[in-house]
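Changelog note: in this version the structure field was regenerated for every chain. One regenerated record is shown below for reference.
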Amino acid sequence: MTTLNCTSANPWPAGPVKVRVDVFNNIRFPADGLPGPVIALIGSDRAKPVALEYTYDVTVRWKNLRTGRTGKVFVPGRGFTVKWQVDIHPGHGPVAFTIHQKLGALAFNPMVNPQYSSCSGRATA
């Protein structure tokens, strides 16, 4: 397991949203129920819940560096904190991935003042 920092500007008038992404590999029973090998990416801002909600779209693009296989996973979410999980199924081998986050304020509309960030990492499946 490793942890990435994927900080984003805050769509609310507050400090940055410090999203930490835990990267897990060799998972026997992934959350999505599909067979392995699986790499699980779990993002969380680990902040105390606030009174105002966020909406977020997370897209992960990945490439298996051994086989050349590529893929993309999209996960939308909403909450008083930023928490998401993406399971990728790249096959065996080293995998490079990029996480794209779009965070918005939920203020009568679902994605007010969207803020964009990205980070990258590698893991072996």
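Spot check on this record: The chain has one domain: 2-124. The radius of gyration is 15 Å.
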